């Protein structure tokens, strides 16, 4: 009888240790990934030269958004109405992962933050701010940096 109790304790302890180690591994791997090349770049999102074409307006369906590149950096181009566009940095304000439109929101694959598809406003943390806006305007058939 006394041998049964230590055995159960050993199993439980081992299980917790393995689960803790696994969770720690995931967190460390995620942090390492977020630090590779994106840290600090969110401060430079408005630096694209004015008049640089982001995409054709018709590349984005009305009411939706798509991933684009602005001045070599990941960005999101949204089309709130037939004739308007909005652009935000795709660098997550939490730890710098690249966010992307997915379903009815812009989502971060790293920790699950969500942002409004058309405004980039924060909808769900752990990020505590929305996506950084990038000034754009519609010029003819194209969306260009403003
Ligand atoms: S980097 Fe953590 S939620 Fe985006």
Short précis:
This protein is of the alpha+beta class. Helix content is 21%, strand content 32%.
Bound molecules: FE2/S2 (inorganic) cluster
C-alpha geometry: globular
The end-to-end span amounts to: 78 Å
User: How many E-type strands?
Assistant: 11
CATH superfamily: Rieske [2Fe-2S] iron-sulphur domain
Main sheet attributes: strand count, strand direction, barrel closure: 4 strands, antiparallel
Order of helices and strands: HEEEEEEEEEEE
Could you name the CATH topology? Rieske Iron-sulfur Protein
Global Rg: 21 Å
Number of separate domains = 1
Which ranges are low-confidence, i.e. pLDDT below 50, for 5 or more consecutive residues? 1-46
Provide structural commentary.
The protein has a single domain, classed as Rieske [2Fe-2S] iron-sulphur domain (Rieske Iron-sulfur Protein), CATH 2.102.10. It has one helix at residues 4-34, and strands spanning 53-56, 65-70, 73-81, 84-89, 100-102, 105-107, 114-115, 122-124, 133-134, 136-139, 142-145. The radius of gyration is 21 Å and the shape is globular. The strands form three sheets. Strands 2-3-4-9 form a four-stranded antiparallel beta sheet, with no helix packed on it. The longest helix is centred in the first third of the chain and has 31 residues, at 4-34. Strand 7 and strand 8 form a beta hairpin. The protein is an alpha+beta fold and 146 residues long. 21% of the residues lie in helices and 32% in strands. Residues 34, 92, 94-95, 97, 108, 110-113, 126-127 line the site of FE2/S2 (inorganic) cluster (FES).
